[in-house]
Amino acid sequence: MEQMTFHFDTVLSDVHMHFHSAQHLMTRLNQVGQPEHTMATTLEDVGKQVWRGALLLADFILSQPIMFRAATVLDMGAGTGLTSIVMATTAKTVYCTDVGEDLLSMCRKNVSLNQHLMEDADLEFSWTEDEVADLHDNTSFIIAADVCYDDDLTDGFFRTLYKLCSSFTHTCIIYISIEKRMNFTLRHMDVSCDAYNHFRHCLSGLQELEDQRCSFTVEQISANFTQFFIYERIEHLLPLFSVER
């Protein structure tokens, strides 16, 4: 195990991926015997960790291979790339996106290490006119795993989601997984879920939006599909939502 130093602002993932069976996805390991990710980071770098929301969404993708087959999919805030890699085993095209060169480098490396799971993994993605046109014309699914943990990021996520969907001329379904994290706050002097509550507020605002350009329908999906990855799945703390545009 790699040596770690913990600071006051260190954030720990509840998930540490370590697969003993060669039959599992993400079987190529790094020099310390783990897939490319980080167990502990500062808040700004939590995208380098694997969170349960990503594993839940990956399970959902694997349970619906026919639905995603031959689809064009946009992964927003892909982090380590886990959900994009799993989606690429069935979809035609996956646009794996995030922010930060070091994070994208880690993600790119994970995609490269798992090319054996995909028919065609083109790592040279540079937002050409053809790629942008393909994304706008053909994206039928958008996925996002555990990207709403900070209010400002959540607001930006929903603004981007609306801007994208309002430019589409076709139906698009968005799948969002999020972990409902309980924290004690001095403001409330109680345990609360501020980040999750803000996410739900934004989700309700999207559904209630009265706009001639597009409308949205929100539904929570029951997590009774097959669990392929090993993690603790508690449905009321790990919800999955579909948003149809």
TrEMBL record:
Gene Ontology MF annotations: protein methyltransferase activity
CDD domains: AdoMet_MTases (cd02440)
This protein's record includes keyword Methyltransferase: yes
Pfam families: Methyltransf_16
One annotated Gene Ontology cellular component of this protein: nucleus
InterPro entries: Methyltransf_16, METTL22, SAM-dependent_MTases_sf
Keyword terms, alphabetized: Methyltransferase, S-adenosyl-L-methionine, Transferase
GO biological process terms, semicolon-separated: methylation
Taxonomic superkingdom: Eukaryota
Full protein name: Methyltransferase like 22
Organism annotation: Gouania willdenowi
